[in-house]
Amino acid sequence: MVAKKPINTRTKAPTIRDVARVAKVSIGTASKALNANGRLSTETREKVKRVAAEIGYRPNDLAQSLHRSKSMTVGVITNDSFGRFSFPIFEALEERLAAEGIAVFMCNATDDPERERQHLDQLLGKRIDGLVVTARRTDNRAPIGRFAHGLPVIYVFTHADEDDAHSLLPDDEGGAYLATTHLASLGRKHIVHVTGPERFEAVRLRLKGYRRALKDNGLDEQVHHGPWSEVWGREAAAKLFSKKTQKPDALFCGNDQIARGAAEGLRDLGIQVPRDVAIVGFDNWEVITQAARPPLTSIDMNLKALGAEAGERLIAMIGGQKIRGARRMPCSLVIRQSCGSEMRNLSEV
Amino acid sequence: MVAKKPINTRTKAPTIRDVARVAKVSIGTASKALNANGRLSTETREKVKRVAAEIGYRPNDLAQSLHRSKSMTVGVITNDSFGRFSFPIFEALEERLAAEGIAVFMCNATDDPERERQHLDQLLGKRIDGLVVTARRTDNRAPIGRFAHGLPVIYVFTHADEDDAHSLLPDDEGGAYLATTHLASLGRKHIVHVTGPERFEAVRLRLKGYRRALKDNGLDEQVHHGPWSEVWGREAAAKLFSKKTQKPDALFCGNDQIARGAAEGLRDLGIQVPRDVAIVGFDNWEVITQAARPPLTSIDMNLKALGAEAGERLIAMIGGQKIRGARRMPCSLVIRQSCGSEMRNLSEV
Questions:
Q1: In whole angstroms, what is the distance from residue B153 CA to residue B179 CA?
Q2: Contact yes or no for A95 and B108 at CB 8 A
Q3: B84 contact residues in A (CB cutoff 8 A)
């Protein structure tokens, strides 16, 4: 293994030995001065600090963390190889932890349990102070807890089948309720739900929110499942409007790709969005919502807020706080042209 | 700061002390047995190893890395907050390094030099063995080298203005040459280049490849710059075909979003793709290429191969090898329906 060869080509970073030599003090004195402990004259202490700054000495975190039994590191294991959902979460999480001086090891297990186990072993060997697990959400994931020696673990955008696991998720049901209620409030009476595969927990929760909103507004449901794609959205639009039955006047779609496909399908048929049919998507993925004709109203899962909150909670857990159970964070409605109301943002109450 | 409180709620991981106690040997003997050094009977060595496995003892990487002066960690600093380009690179890089037992610290500097500097300080404090810098490519980035104490640094998908910096990039010029030559080989005579903003190095390089291919085929150029969006692609298509001048019979677009927009713009005008106008995009971003009508032929930058190669090279550099200068990795042409040739993949020669 190449990486185990000695590194002889590298300029060595200055050590406490160098600080002591240049400052003409003992290593013990240099250490006391830099760690602000022991009795020393102010003069000596200042001299050592000045020398350390001049020669670019940095305290060795490894030695410090052995001493404190804290590594000031956290591991993130993701299974979302696409990265569209995990990246904004990770970005905000990393920013929050970096502010506390905590660095993040990131591992991608790509849904391979063997690789996940190896990553976890490696992270435990590095004595991480906490662990974040994030994933695609087809269903509950296997808990990681029993391998982690009581390490603080937080599941983000996924949850585990384990009694005291702590997970942080978007409120899919609330988001769907918000979208459907918005369409109903604009006077739409035949709101059809075109969504993704039923095996996704998010699909089941969004369906629940849609049904609750219809019930609250005295409207009937119509649900169609298919893949998470624009092609499915186009097909669904074509199918819905070729039937002799009651035509929908609104579509609430399970994601933005389905919504954009539906908008194009209606365009092909000469049906106007939003005049004839209003559309609301889910994800607020700007690449899709902005390019659609018309630009799509959508539900935003506020993934950056989710990531920042996960960082906050993990820091508290590392500090000894016990946090348990699943917590759902609110979604928001981002209004563009496809739903027929004016441009404004509403937060879920 | 919460994170500095002592952790008193955490189950302690077994230490070498526990191994010694259970195996009924001294700590020195346990250490010799587990580190495979010193003289011990085979029986004792085996007993210690068995006990270590039974109680779940893991050697402490922190202690080991202090001893070896190797941390078995690498830092990645990214400035690509969107993650679409950096994520596949990171994924393959991390996989390659994990295979060598090297863990990856990932930091997002989001184009803020102050944050980048803080991240670097933090990484240096953790005694990383090497550093990967990746970024959006508007232009050369400020070199990081002079702060890094001779640490092996590799720039991926970006490069630095520094004599001995090593960078790994996709061959944008070669990719554009491949796309344009392909269109010319299909008999297209009026190939227009609709691309992104000129301030991007990638735009300038792709333009160069397009020009070289046209020259080799005795064709004339026509170039239009605009934003990296579908809206710009639609606008460009509308503009090109409203003119009284020579109509294009092919478009080579600077990215897939522009290409998809152009395809939709032509569709709106009743112009058939690829019969009347052939289109080739750039990035091979499947979300866009597969949803376009027709699905788009595109240039793939092989970002996963780039990430794996970066890992390989960084491992060699950590092992003491000197690697310098910029290296461009080949792109490939992925053929779908928009260019009018049959389905097949060609690699750049």
A1: 33
A2: yes
A3: 83
